[in-house]
Amino acid sequence: QNIGFELSQAKSTMPTLSVALVGGGEVLSNIAFPDHSPLGKLARAAARDLGVAVTRCVLLSPSGKRMAHSVTPSQEGLEDGDVFSLLVVGGTRLASTTTAFAAVREDGSAITWGHPAYGGNSQEVSAELAGGVLQVVGTNAAFSAVTQGGSVVTWGYSTWGGNSDEVKSQLSSGVHKVVGKFGAFAAIKEDGSVVTWGDAGRGGNSDEVKHQLTGGNSDEV
């Protein structure tokens, strides 16, 4: 299900946003929205009207890029007449390692079960998984979760991606997407840069090509 947002500029600091179902019918009409307020507030308003959890709502720019709920119209450079979309994703989503599972529920919380060392025990990060989780990805032995604010939470077997302390500052905000393979993760950020962690021999160390991963990369990693 997609919802289109149409922007008309009522005032320079208070754009008016309308939300309409692509198939027809308005959800929100002529909402005066402060230029410096996070778009997540608009997503929450649309979610309430649709009767779905806001964590199921993914904002997409006119080019199809996912926008963090924390960004503002001014940061995105929205112009009069811009149209972007709100993608409403499915309900519970699952991810797995070789011996554990993680589920993102409709309320945006994530739960885990299975082998404790391979991601089944997420107690140490339970507070961060209590809400606002957009994506969970697994390697063979660890999980990574992307939150609404664009940060990444990791747990599981530390050597194979469960410990991201070395790149923690780079994963604190602005993450667009995470991909997991055997023993390592790669995250692409909203500025196009790529961050990797996990087993060095399996892709977790990208130092040799770091200068090529600083920006302008595709959203496919």
UniProtKB/TrEMBL annotation:
It comes from the Eukaryota. The lineage of its organism: Eukaryota, Sar, Alveolata, Dinophyceae, Noctilucales. Residues 199-221 are annotated as: Disordered. SUPFAM superfamilies: RCC1/BLIP-II (SSF50985). InterPro entries: RCC1/BLIP-II. This is Ubiquitin-like domain-containing protein.
